[in-house]
Design goal:
139 residues, Alpha-Beta Plaits, two-stranded antiparallel ribbon, 25% strand, globular
């Protein structure tokens, strides 16, 4: 399957955070395609720290929920284990990796809805920092 991911960071050395995440993704799937970086304001919460986002397309035989677990593991290894504050609201983060969309091996769009994962991402069309990189990866 081909997965279209969005990586975002608004803390620390943002470019280095993204490059480390891209390297971890690439090592786990044998390579990836990367969009241009996009700067954006925080979405869903207030923060003085702007985000830097990038889209990444990977190909792997892993099923969607396994990919999600792998992405969460990468986030934890890179020091970003929680994206919400003590009240459950979005918070600043070193790295956040979201699955924006996926295609099966024939190139057909995958749709999935479970308690822990929705493909395509429910906010794919609401967030320009998702759409711009996604359109570069899948015109």
């Amino acid at each position: 399957m081909k997965y279209y991911l969005n990586l975002g960071t608004n803390l620390g050395h943002k470019r280095r955070n993204l490059f480390r995440a891209i390297a971890a993704l690439s090592a786990g799937c044998g390579g990836c395609m990367v969009s241009r970086m996009v700067e954006s304001e925080p979405w869903g919460f207030h923060s003085p720290h702007a985000f830097l986002n990038v889209g990444v397309a990977i190909t792997t035989a892993m099923p969607p929920h396994e990919v999600l677990s792998w992405l969460h593991d990468i986030e934890r290894r890179l020091g970003s284990d929680n994206h919400r504050d003590e009240h459950g609201h979005y918070a600043d983060r070193l790295i956040d990796i979201d699955i924006m969309a996926a295609d099966d091996d024939e190139g057909n769009a995958v749709t999935l809805s479970s308690a822990t994962l929705q493909i395509p991402h429910p906010h794919l069309h609401d967030r320009m920092f998702f759409l711009q990189p996604y359109r570069q990866l899948k015109p």
